[in-house]
Design a protein that fits this description.
Largest sheet: none
Helix content: over 70%
Mean pLDDT: 91
Low-confidence stretches: none
Order of helices and strands: HHHH
Length: 112
C-alpha cells in the first residue's frame, strides 16, 4: 500500500472514529432513566439563544453603513427574519426565507 493510500485510509478512519464518538458518547454519558445534570439542562435552555446572538453579530459585523446601500438590505432581512419568526415560530422557515429575501435584495434591488 502506498504512503498516499495509507494516509487517506488513516484520515477516513479518524473521521469515522470522530463521528462515532460524537454520536454515541452522549448515550454513554447520559443513559436512559438517569436524571440529566442541572448544568446540562441549563446549557440546553441557554445555548440556542447564545448561538443565534453570535450568528447575528457575525452576519452583521461587515455591514457598511456609509456604503451605497447604507445597510438597508441587512436591516430589512433582519426585520423579515424577526417578523417571520414571531408569526410562525419556525427557525428553519425564518432563517431560510430571510436568506432568500436578503439575496434578492442584494442581487436585484440594491445591485451596484
Amino acid at each position: 500500500m502506498s504512503q498516499e493510500t495509507m494516509r487517506s485510509v488513516l484520515i477516513v478512519a479518524a473521521m469515522v472514529l470522530g463521528t462515532l464518538i460524537t454520536r454515541f458518547l452522549p448515550f454513554l454519558v447520559f443513559p436512559a432513566g438517569k436524571k440529566t445534570p442541572a448544568f446540562v439542562d441549563y446549557l440546553g435552555r441557554t445555548l440556542p439563544y447564545a448561538t443565534m446572538g453570535l450568528l447575528v453579530v457575525y452576519c452583521l459585523k461587515g455591514v457598511d453603513l456609509a456604503g451605497p446601500s447604507h445597510g438597508l438590505p441587512e436591516i430589512l432581512a433582519v426585520a423579515a427574519v424577526a417578523l417571520l419568526h414571531r408569526l410562525k415560530g419556525n427557525s428553519l422557515l425564518s432563517i431560510g426565507a430571510g436568506t432568500v429575501f436578503y439575496m434578492i435584495l442584494v442581487q436585484m434591488v440594491f445591485a451596484g
